[in-house]
Write a structure and sequence with these properties.
Blueprint: H1 2-17, H2 24-30, E1 39-47, H3 57-74, E2 78-83, E3 87-94, H4 102-119, E4 127-131, H5 141-156
Antiparallel strand pairs: 1-3, 1-4, 2-3
Length: 165
């Protein structure tokens, strides 16, 4: 049952990230507590697959996704998570009035992910984080995802040191 829930969440997250239409009811089905008045940001964690020990890579991505979801939940936000071959994308929903300092909140999440990667086999060298601007309409999830990818690209070519656009 838990695996079915994870697969359904992954499907909804991928649809939103790809810019496909997704009904509010479909989001609510996998994300209890979701409402259309929530704002969101996309956190993108780029993970370089290690050269050794790659046979358990999918399991490693699932574990990282679960830990990421837990850290987001601890900050009082709802999230949809999608893990691909070299990235984990989280769509984080929050009430704007409750998170007036949402940049600080997302910076805290980033720091906890950095600590996680340092403790893990990546030694902090194989992960990069990009965080989008805040949006309100779920039709903009694809744009937010592009924002986060742009942040990582700018980090890779040393034009940006920040995690935000």
């Amino acid at each position: 049952m838990e695996e079915n829930k994870h697969v359904a969440e992954e499907e909804v997250a991928r649809k939103l990230l790809a810019g496909k239409d997704c009904e509010q009811a479909e989001i609510k089905a996998v994300l209890p507590g979701y409402s259309a008045n929530l704002h969101f940001r996309v956190i993108l964690l780029k993970v370089t697959k290690p050269q050794s020990g790659t046979k358990d890579w999918e399991e490693t991505l699932l574990q990282l996704s679960a830990m990421m979801k837990n850290r987001i939940k601890k900050k009082g936000m709802l999230s949809l998570i999608s893990a691909a071959k070299d990235e984990i994308a989280a769509i984080c929903f929050f009430k704007k009035d409750e998170h007036n300092h949402d940049l600080a909140t997302f910076s805290d999440i980033h720091q906890s992910l950095v600590q996680l990667s340092i403790k893990d086999r990546y030694n902090g060298k194989h992960t990069m984080t990009g965080i989008s601007k805040a949006y309100k309409n779920t039709a903009d999830v694809c744009q937010a995802y592009d924002d986060a990818k742009k942040v990582i690209f700018l980090q890779q070519i040393n034009l940006l040191q920040e995690i935000f656009l």
